[in-house]
Amino acid sequence: MTPQFVLTVGHDALMLLLMIAMPVLGVVMAVGLLVSIFQAVTQIHEATLAFVPKLVAAVAVFVFAGPWMVSTLVDFIRRTIESIPSVVG
């Protein structure tokens, strides 16, 4: 196992992490911004008003992007497990 191989696997894992997390984080951040603007305009500062829309948005993203996320993770894990024999021997 070479240092270059370890760095490549680590880089691929971090890029995969960012690629999978971005849809959920982006949507939740946008919903949070909209809710905070709504709270600032109406001066309604209820904690559930900030939490529930973000939760619903995150669930909606998981419903739509979940199969893509799982298949991407499975592909990465399969490639990693299949590369074990070349690394060991």
Describe this protein's structure.
The protein is mainly alpha-helical and 89 residues long. The chain has one domain (3-88). The chain is built from 3 helices and no strands. Helix 1 (3-42) runs antiparallel to helix 2 (47-82). The longest helix is centred in the N-terminal third of the chain and has 40 residues, at 3-42.
Radius of gyration: 19 Å
Helix content: over 70%
Query: Segments where pLDDT lies below 50 for 5+ residues?
Result: none
The topology string of helices and strands comes to: HHH
Number of strands: 0
> Which of globular, elongated, flat, extended, rod-shaped describes the shape?
elongated
Quote the distance from N terminus to C terminus.
9 Å
Quickly count the domains: 1
Helix count, DSSP H or I runs of 4 or more residues: 3
SS strand fraction: under 5%
- Mean pLDDT comes to 92
Sheet having the most strands: none
Q: Tell me the structural class.
A: mainly alpha
